[in-house]
Design brief:
This protein is of the alpha/beta class. It is 36% helix and 25% strand. The chain contains 9 helices and 13 strands. The strands form 4 sheets. Strands 1, 4, 5, 6, 7 and 13 form a 6-stranded mixed beta sheet that branches. The chain is globular.
């Protein structure tokens, strides 16, 4: 028997031993990134009233960017005041929850390029005529999450802070007259007023400088460069703008 015939016979025998099935090369599984979000901050991260599915601008943008970067996504819902502690203790790998890009946070964490640009606003009751500019909140009580940029801003303008878990609770306290104001992102407030037409609140004043939000990772992680590259690509091809138009009617990434 020739050498080539022997090799062919050996190959046939090997296939037979495997039940006649050819062996496919191993394919690496797509890695999963675990990301924390509130799930109660419409329209950025909330549950659909019809399906109860977690949806929102931040949810859609992070999912699209992660897919482009080569990751599957597992969302974990938590309160804002525990979101950074969970990242530090490695309970999750990232945060997608309108985190404002600030120098102190950049020193401690890896933050991506901005995917949202907006303004901070003062929210008051409709009947309040005393607040017309940001400086008017001095001496008033503002309902804010303890570790948020909104809380820091309220304090810097001389307001007293009543600690709450998030925007929904802040609005409830404001409506009940237990606090004077709350500070939040203009996009969230406009969405709330639009979907709650009987809400007895208004935007009373706007802070001058726009705020920019990014996704957050632990310092020195392997995610930052991949996510920035994917975000830049999806910004360039219009994907991020399309998601913005879905939720706000306009591109809110610039």
């Amino acid at each position: 028997m020739s050498k080539s015939i022997k090799l062919a016979a050996a190959a046939v025998a090997a296939v037979a031993l495997l039940g006649g099935a050819a062996v496919a090369p191993a394919i690496a599984a797509t890695p999963t990134i675990k990301v924390a979000t509130e799930g109660t901050y419409s329209p950025f991260t909330y549950h659909s009233a019809t399906s109860n599915k977690l949806v929102g601008y931040d949810v859609d943008v992070f999912t699209a960017v992660a897919k482009k970067a080569g990751y599957k996504v597992q969302f974990v819902e938590t309160t804002w005041d525990g979101i950074f502690a969970g990242l530090e203790s490695k309970r999750w790998d990232a945060i997608a929850n309108q985190v404002t890009i600030r120098a102190d946070r950049q020193a401690k964490y890896d933050l991506t390029a901005p995917y949202t640009v907006s303004n901070y606003v003062v929210v008051a009751k409709k009947s309040d005529t005393k607040i017309t500019k940001a400086e008017d909140i001095k001496g008033l009580t503002a309902a804010q999450s303890a570790t948020s940029s909104f809380s820091d801003l309220a304090k810097s303008y001389g307001a007293k802070v009543e600690t709450v878990e998030g925007f929904t609770q802040a609005i409830q306290l404001l409506g009940a007259g237990r606090v004077d104001v709350t500070i939040n992102d203009s996009l969230a407030v406009l969405d709330y007023i639009k979907t709650n037409r009987d809400a007895n609140v208004k935007i009373a004043a706007t802070f001058g400088d726009p705020s920019k939000q990014g996704f957050v990772f632990r310092k020195g992680s392997t995610y930052l460069a991949k996510f920035n590259k994917a975000l830049a690509s999806l910004t360039a091809d219009g994907t991020i703008a399309k998601i913005g138009k879905k939720y706000f009617g306009k591109d809110v990434s610039k």
